[in-house]
């Protein structure tokens, strides 16, 4: 996708230097700042502190983090230790665990001398596959958008939640990939962007849409139901952090409320995610662990002060008891379709197995 008209990815790998550069997403939308990640500790911090966020990008960053960790010690002990640390950073996004398991499966049979180069090659393969898969999601989603257009020149009004654009992946995005595909194909499209409290990832969505020239309007989370009720939304599309085998979807908290409002108003609710987000070992959404984040994310509001410097404003006392779940689960019956790199399918076990028959039990 584009920043100031320049094609850009969220992650730059430098295998010859054994490090990566990432966009510090905690600085957006106020400043575009690249951070160098050269140690295992820095990679784990980038994931845990949400300098990188979005399930696919978390997975790719973890893969590179493992490659970085093996630079000076590729022993079995180091491989196991590094993978365990990276796994501990975020519990809900299954892409993280998928990427690390894939890396371990490739690296464990190899000699220690061969592991470092192989780790960088496999991490690069994971990143490149993410780009290709997300581009395919865009094309499959575009076909669904075209079915919603009933008149030439009609503006397609899409609502999303959190950030599932290219900032949440290596490139293209998941939920926003069909939006970009439509915009680039000349389809008039407008996006309603929910702020997504308390981390305000919707501000990242608005930033990247503006960079790519896609018309959009930022709204408070609680305005979503009204817009749906007023018929101002043609479809809602979100990403996912984990999709259970039965089609239940874990995504940023607040997603479930949008799905309910869609059901009440006859608006299709779509979920877009690559294969790495599907967890066929998880039978249903009730089995998905929900991350509880630090309450200070809720107690403070972050922005710029009157000198245009980053600042935090306390909105609650330090001893105020708060709950800060990062995700919720939307049951499969509220989902119109799941869009993957292989196409769109019903949100059900049979639907997912129709796209991925190799995952069927023997």
Automatic annotation (TrEMBL):
Pfam families (alphabetical): IF-2B
Enzyme Commission code(s) on record: 5.3.1.23
Catalytic activity: 5-(methylsulfanyl)-alpha-D-ribose 1-phosphate = 5-(methylsulfanyl)-D-ribulose 1-phosphate; 5-deoxy-alpha-D-ribose 1-phosphate = 5-deoxy-D-ribulose 1-phosphate
Positions bound to substrate: 53-55, 90, 201, 251-252
Residue ranges of coiled coil: none
Gene3D superfamilies cross-referenced by the UniProt entry: translation initiation factor eif-2b, domain 1, Translation initiation factor eif-2b, domain 2
InterPro entries the record matches: IF-2B-related (IPR000649), IF-M1Pi (IPR005251), IF_2B-like_C (IPR042529), Initiation_fac_2B_a/b/d (IPR011559), M1Pi_N (IPR027363), NagB/RpiA_transferase-like (IPR037171)
Keywords: Amino-acid biosynthesis, Isomerase, Methionine biosynthesis
Pathway: Amino-acid biosynthesis; L-methionine biosynthesis via salvage pathway; L-methionine from S-methyl-5-thio-alpha-D-ribose 1-phosphate: step 1/6
First-level EC class: isomerase
A GO term, aspect molecular function: S-methyl-5-thioribose-1-phosphate isomerase activity
Positions of the catalytic residues: 241
Tagged with keyword Amino-acid biosynthesis: yes
A Gene Ontology biological process term: L-methionine salvage from methylthioadenosine
Record carries keyword Repeat: no
Site (Transition state stabilizer): 162
Family, per entry: Belongs to the EIF-2B alpha/beta/delta subunits family. MtnA subfamily.
Protein's job: Catalyzes the interconversion of methylthioribose-1-phosphate (MTR-1-P) into methylthioribulose-1-phosphate (MTRu-1-P). Also catalyzes the interconversion of 5-deoxyribose 1-phosphate and 5-deoxyribulose 1-phosphate. Part of a bifunctional DHAP-shunt salvage pathway for SAM by-products.
Official protein name in the record: Methylthioribose-1-phosphate isomerase
Organism: Azonexus hydrophilus
Lineage of the organism: Bacteria, Pseudomonadati, Pseudomonadota, Betaproteobacteria, Rhodocyclales
Gene assigned in the entry: mtnA
């Amino acid at each position: 996708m584009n920043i100031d008209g320049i094609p850009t990815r969220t992650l730059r790998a430098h295998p010859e230097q054994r490090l990566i550069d990432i966009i510090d997403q905690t600085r957006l939308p106020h400043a575009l700042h690249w951070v160098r990640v050269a140690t295992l500790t820095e990679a784990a911090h980038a994931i845990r502190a949400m300098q990188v966020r979005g399930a696919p990008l978390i997975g790719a960053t973890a893969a590179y983090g493992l490659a970085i960790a093996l630079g000076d010690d590729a022993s079995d002990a180091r491989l196991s230790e590094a993978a365990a640390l990276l796994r501990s950073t975020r519990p809900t996004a299954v892409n993280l665990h998928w990427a690390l398991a894939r890396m371990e499966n490739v690296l464990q049979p190899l000699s220690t001398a061969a592991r470092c180069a192989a780790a960088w090659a496999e991490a690069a393969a994971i990143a490149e596959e993410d780009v290709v898969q997300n581009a395919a999601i865009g094309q499959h989603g575009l076909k669904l958008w075209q079915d919603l257009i009933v008149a030439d020149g009609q503006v397609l009004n899409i609502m999303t939640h959190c950030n599932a654009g290219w900032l949440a992946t290596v490139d293209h995005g998941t939920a926003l990939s069909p939006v970009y595909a439509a915009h680039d194909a000349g389809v008039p499209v407008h996006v309603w962007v929910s702020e997504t409290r308390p981390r305000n990832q919707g501000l990242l969505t608005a930033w990247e849409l503006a960079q790519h020239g896609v018309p959009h309007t930022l709204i408070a989370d609680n305005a979503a139901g009204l817009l749906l009720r007023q018929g101002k939304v043609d479809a809602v599309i979100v990403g996912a952090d984990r999709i259970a085998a039965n089609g239940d979807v874990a995504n940023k908290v607040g997603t479930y409320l949008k799905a309910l409002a869609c059901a009440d108003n006859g608006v299709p609710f779509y979920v877009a995610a690559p294969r790495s987000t599907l967890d066929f070992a998880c039978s249903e959404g009730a089995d998905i662990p929900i991350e509880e984040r630090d309450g200070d994310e809720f107690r403070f509001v972050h922005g710029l002060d009157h000198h245009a410097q980053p600042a935090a404003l306390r909105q609650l006392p330090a001893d105020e008891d708060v709950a800060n779940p990062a995700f919720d689960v939307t049951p499969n019956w509220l989902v119109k379709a799941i869009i993957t790199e292989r196409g769109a399918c019903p949100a059900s076990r049979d639907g997912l197995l129709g796209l991925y028959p190799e995952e069927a039990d023997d």
